[in-house]
Each structure stands twice: as structure tokens, then as C-alpha cells.
Model the fold of this input.
Amino acid sequence: MAWRRVAAVLIATPIVVGGGGFLYLQYKMRNYPTSARRHLRRALLGHHYGGLEYLPGQEYDAAIRETLNAGLSITSPEITGIYEHLADYYNKVGDLSQQRAVLSILFKIVCKPPSDQIESANEKTRRLSIAMKAAQWASEAAESAADMKAARIYLEWIVENSLDLNSTSSDESGLPLDVQQKVVSAGSLKLAPWATPRQIGMTLEQLGHIYSNQNLIDWAVPVYQRALEMLDQDKELSLLERQCRSAILHNNLAECISKWDSNKEALTQALQLATISMQILEKVGPLGTCGECDPITYFNMGAILDKLGQSHEAVSYFKQALARSQHIGFSQGVEKAQRALNKPT
Done:
């Protein structure tokens, strides 16, 4: 039972519009043609203050058309800023389909360099920074829509375009490596200028979660390991966030390894990882500080011990997982622990 710290993902990828949100668009208003400003003001009022007289989606679309008609590039901060605001608006009103459509457009705009001009290093950094955010939001939206194929594509794009993975470009047969193979074969992970350890660490964590759910365990394990590397590089994390994410990653690794191979050596390694997760959780604070990770780790510890034939010890951990799930109101954890305890021996 792997667990994703969704709140942490959202912390890592906030919807920040055009480098400064609402104030950015207000400040940049002077760069928009007069015909677009009226639509943009109406869109912003309806979006942020709920004015019923305006339909923000239509007003943002109109502002985009007028700005393009005035000759501004589709990759300009003015246009991409409106698209980011438009995606945020559809997220706010819960229109997942429209949000995904807008993010798809934004991503296609900025994921490739412009064909009609030479791009400076600063322009490339700005463009790919926006593309990373768009891909992250799009992957989250795709997961919400249960479209795991699309979510995986976006996340793999982030990894391939934000890490220096060129240390090994092909395998022994000369065939090109896929993203997962590149992550494994690369040496120390070097970030591109438009990426941060937190963004990439969260992306790797999400990607590992998808691989695990798709039963690609031999892919999930190294990706989770690389996420731990990024955790070490992230100097801006609070101690609590670092501890919780470390506990989650060690727990997810333990579960993956125990699924990957059932021999004693693999299960012993999984047991060690689950133990590390539990030790971290004990240092963090009261039960529930790291959310559902606590009871899940106890459940996984029981599952690993059960595979090792230590059924008595396993039952003890299942009982603790049940009690801890009940304490924090984690219904899925309660159900899984009860099933494990009711399983015939």
C-alpha cells in the first residue's frame, strides 16, 4: 500500500501565474493592446472576485485573441501568462476537462523552441520553466481524470528535459534508452537551470508511484531511489517536510522491493527500509503528523514479515496498523488491516 504525499506535491507545484500571479498581469497590463485590456480586466475580476456579470473563460480567450492579433508572439510572457490564469480559473471552478485542454495548449506552446527566432539562454530558461509547471499541472489533472498514460507522459517529459541524462545515451546494443533507463544509468543527477530539487524530487516521486501502480516495479524502485537523492539536494525543505517525505519514500521502496522479489535477501532489504521509515516517523512527532504514512508503514512491515514466515510478528504489526488507521480516520487502512488479520493462517 504505497502512499503519495499529495499535499507535498501541491506545495512543490503551486499555481503561480506568469512569474507573479495576479499582480504580474496587472503590472504587465501596459504591454497588452488596448483591445485586450478590457477583456483581461473583466476576466481577472470574475476569476478572483467572482463577479457574475463576466464569464472569465470567455474573457481570457478574447484577451488571447486580441493580443495575438496585435502581433505579440504566442510564446511571449503576456500570452503564456493568460493561459496559466485560464488553467487556474478552470481548476478553481472544478472544470477538469477544460483545465486539461488549456494546459495541453500551454504545454505545446512552450515545450519546443520557437522556429522563427533564435532563443537566448534566458528565454530558454523562462520557456522551459513554464513548460515544467504546465506539465506538472497537466499530470496532476490527468491523474484526477484517471488518465495515467497521459500523466506518465508529462512526468517523463519533465525528467528527460530537466535532468542531465546524457552520460549514457544508449545501451550495449546501441539502441536508445528510455527515460527510466536513463535515470538509472546516469551518474549523479545534475539539474538544468530551469529546475529545482523540489520540483524534480516530487516529479520522480509521482513517476515512481505511477510505475508502481502499473506493476512496473523494476522501474519504480530506481526512480524512488533517485527521488531520495533529490531530497538530499533540496536545501529549502523544512525539517518536518524532509522527514515525512523520507519516511514515505523509504516505505514505498520497501513495498516495491517486497513485490519485486520474494526471496529472503530482497525481503530482508525491504524490511530494513520499512524499519528506517518507522524510525523516522517516531522522530517526527505525534501519530498522524505525516498523514497516512504511519499506519501504511506498519501495514507494510506486517506484510513483509508475513512473507518471511514470521506470522506472529506480522499480526502484531497488522494490529498496530489497524489501531493507527482508526486513530486518524484512515478508512482504507482500516479495511486492509482487518482483511490481513482475518486471513486464514
